[in-house]
Design brief:
Blueprint lengths: L9 E4 L3 H12 L4 E5 L2 H7 L5 E4 L5 H6 L7 E4 L5 H14 L3 E5 L3 H9 L4 E3 L5 H10 L6 E3 L5 E6 L18 E7 L2 E4 L12 E6 L1 H8 L3
Parallel strand pairs: 1-2, 1-4, 2-3, 4-5, 5-6
Antiparallel strand pairs: 7-8, 8-11, 9-10, 9-11
Helix pairs in contact: 1-6
Length: 219
């Protein structure tokens, strides 16, 4: 049976230092997390803290299909110590239609390659930044900007007045991507492009510095 999509559900593939800290933090914030790793030891360490865990080889696309990972809107690929595996998993997720793929990289070169093969965001983190990413994804971080690499950042921006009444996709004119929308007490991950923006909305957008600056200056 197909799994019902929930915008707040996140699949975390790789439960080492970074992936484990993201997954644990998201769960503590009330989100449902599927944790995936091929190590029985890592699964055992974290199983009691996550909604679901599965031990499988995520480089096998058939295994990802059986795990119904395609039903998730957001997947985090936290396999930073094995670039070949990270790239393969990222490509599989893109092929399966996962909308937001956040991949971990260890270098700018790896970041660029992962972006080219399907990652919508790439982070080059230290281990303790996993909790920070989880806070941003959950909308609880008190932040204005979080660097995701050498030339891309995630920024928290109140909806510009000129975009009130416009669809989310209108933000793309400023060459930024809206990855989350906060509306009063509601948090919407990966808002649909045709969702109308309302006064009081807070947008979490990804882009390079010039694009983010232009977006903040919209009237």
């Amino acid at each position: 049976m197909a799994r019902r999509k929930k915008p707040s559900d996140v699949a975390v593939i790789g439960l080492g230092g970074f992936g484990g800290s993201v997954a644990r933090r998201l769960e503590r914030m009330g989100q449902s997390v599927l944790g995936i790793d091929q190590s029985a030891e890592k699964i055992k360490e974290i199983a009691d803290e996550l909604t679901h865990t599965m031990m499988l080889d995520a480089t096998n696309e058939e295994a990802l299909l059986e795990a119904d990972v395609a039903s998730f809107d957001t997947a985090i690929v936290a396999i930073g110590d094995d670039f070949e595996a990270s790239a393969l998993v990222t490509a599989h997720l893109r092929s399966l239609g996962v909308r937001q793929i956040i991949a971990q990289a260890k270098s700018v070169r790896h970041r660029d390659i992962l972006s080219q093969i399907g990652a919508t965001q790439v982070v080059i983190p230290e281990e303790d930044s996993g909790e920070r990413l989880a806070e941003v994804l959950s909308g609880t971080a008190e932040m204005e900007r979080l660097r995701l690499g050498a030339d891309r950042s995630l920024a928290r921006v109140p909806v510009p007045q000129s975009l009130v009444g416009e669809p989310v996709e209108a933000s793309e004119r400023s060459e930024v991507s809206v990855v989350m929308l906060q509306r009063a007490a509601d948090l919407i991950l990966n808002p649909a492009g045709d969702l109308g923006l309302e006064r009081g909305d807070v947008l979490y957008v990804v882009g390079d510095e010039p694009s983010l600056a232009r977006f903040r200056l919209l009237g």
